[in-house]
Amino acid sequence: MITDRYTEVVRVLYRVLVLNLAVAIVKIGLGYATGAVSILSDGFHSLTDAASNVVALVGVSIARLPPDENHPYGHRKYETMASLGILVFLVLVLVQVLGAAYDRLINGGTPKVFPEGIGIMTITLIVNLFVVAYEEREARRLSSEVLRADAKHTRSDVMTTVAVLGALLGVWWGYSLLDPLAAVVVAWFIGRAGWGIAQEASRILADEIVIAEDDVRAVVRSVPAVLGCHRIRTRGSADYVFMDLHVWLDGQTQLDSAHGTAHIVKDVLMKRFPHLADVVIHIEPPPPG
Question: What is the arithmetic mean of pLDDT over 206-217?
Fold first, then answer.
């Protein structure tokens, strides 16, 4: 059931929120303690992971509402809007990271690096790896785009932490320039994650095709009385798709028989594509010739 699905998505988000908050607090504290702009930037990046979890929780709580008079197609796109909220946080932290990196490159400075700090960053990396694997697995199981978007965000955090660890080792060996350069790498991963989220959200909001027409046509033609179909349209998210199409029947078909065939076509389609929320079928005779 849809309600059960949303309950599970919320449960996953709460678990991830706790882990992301812990990681962000540790990184930011370590960043201020060492003066490493790379660690501090990575910490703020992790903080946006937690903030995006909150945005996602708000979006999912609205998306789970059933269709009503003003929203006959349901509230599913609010989950997509929540993923855009994650994108906003990514853009904000991108600006912050680039500003901090520029300041360090212009004004200079050498952070304090010690083995314990490197060890702490390694632990946060392990936690991030677990969060990514967990969210991606649950996103596939629950077909949730908001979990998928959040996992992309956290995956970029994994890559940035790896870059920061490399920079810390370089600073320890005397290459202080690696600290602001690592912050620039952080910015690049943030930007790439944001671009991926923007592409997926725009696909849904722009009603891009979800199911290939040939796949739909093959299913419809499997119903004996059907002569063909055209004007096939699908839209929505991967787990909540709306479809409408025109189905061709013999022009002499009785109305009640045509109505029954339309129901058969709809049942076959929804069985073949279980992520369909609704199918609207228009019956008409085949075109001449």
Answer: 92
| Mean pLDDT value of segment 99-115 | 73
Please answer whether residues 229 and 262 qualify as being in contact, where contact means their C-beta atoms are separated by less than 8 angstroms: no
Specify the pLDDT at position 87: 83
Strand partners, 283: 247
d(CA 17, CA 58): 13
The pTM score is 0.67
Q: How many residues does the chain have?
A: 289
Task: Write a three-state SS string for the chain.
Answer: CHHHHHHHHHHHHHHHHHHHHHHHHHHHHHHHHHCCHHHHHHHHHHHHHHHHHHHHHHHHHHHCCCCCCCCCCCCCHHHHHHHHHHHHHHHHHHHHHHHHHHHHHHHCCCCCCCHHHHHHHHHHHHHHHHHHHHHHHHHHHHCCHHHHHHHHHHHHHHHHHHHHHHHHHHHHCCCCCHHHHHHHHHHHHHHHHHHHHHHHHHHHHCCCCCCCHHHHHHHHCCCCCCCEEEEEEEEEECCEEEEEEEEECCCCCCHHHHHHHHHHHHHHHHHHCCCEEEEEEEEECCCCC
Per-residue pLDDT reduced to its tens digit, 71-86: 888 887 877 877 787 7
Burial letters 46-58, b for 16+ CB under 10 A, else e: bbbbbbbbbbbbe
Q: How many CB atoms lie within 10 A of CB 158?
A: 18
- Copy the structure tokens of residue 151: 């996992």
Give tens-digit pLDDT for 3-31.
577 788 888 989 999 998 999 899 888 88
- Token readout for 92 is 């904000």
